[in-house]
Design brief:
This protein is α/β, with parallel strands linked by helices and about 300 residues long. The chain is about 40% helix and about 20% strand. The strands form four sheets. The chain has a five-stranded mixed beta sheet with strand order 4-3-5-12-6. Strands 10-7-11 form a three-stranded antiparallel beta sheet, with helices on one face. It has a two-stranded antiparallel ribbon with strand order 1-2. The protein is elongated and about 75 Å long.
Length: about 300
Amino acid sequence: MPKTRDSLTLTQLRYFTRVAELGSMTAAADELFVAQSGVSTAMHQLEKSLGATLFIRRRSKGVILTEQGRAFHTAALRVLDSVDDAVSALSPGQLTGTLAAGCFTTLAPYWLPEVLEQLQTSSPSLTCTIHEVTADRVVSLLQRRDIEIALTYDFDYGRDIDFERITEAPIYAAVTEDDPLAERTSVSLGELSRLPLILLDMDKSTNYFLSLFRDAHLRPMVHQKFESMEVVRSMVARGHGYTILNQRPAHDFTNDGRRLVRLPISGVRSHLQTGVAYRSGEPLSMKSRAFLNACRNALLQE
């Protein structure tokens, strides 16, 4: 048994977690604004104190965790989260430090400013850094611990990611104001399937929109695909087809000044949940819980 466990420091743990997550002592030193030699020495002392080899050091290729290192990494993160929560508990409502969070790219323009305003009001001493992410990056950023929590849709992120629902996303079709459908009060998927679709093409979002037709045993006529919602809206406003979207801007004008008309889709629910994703099996820290509460207040205030 190691005889020097009492010599472990929080600084060593913080250095260790960043080295583990970045796979490089040099990268960790740069991020932490300390000398590389300081990080290297701290890791050597940590391994000596534990009597364990935490890293496999590869010349010019960084480091990777050993089996012992992976187990220690999981436990070290829990310790650091508990320390942050313990400090925050001394001043309830006055969270300090930094929270790294994510926001799904199409949700960000509509909800992120309000979420940050809510968070600033509830926890003015907490600094929140935001990563704008697509669905395919949510899992990797959470697993690498680049972010702690993400405001996103309930896509299939796998068993390692938990999701807490806040609300169901709306769904509607959009056409140009000159389209004959613009005079209607609603439209069916069957009618839409016979028209050219301008598809918002963003990894899991693409499959979601197409699944609406598959579930109705229909096949849409995909005319164009774009990764930008504003490009999709502008194409529709110029009469190149229709689109299906979830988020509703405060006005129906595109960036080039043309107007869209939104139509409910009869007989269709989105079944797409908006909420927060986080690592499974780990309780939310007080900082992440504050972010969740800010998201809930923003999304439910309507």
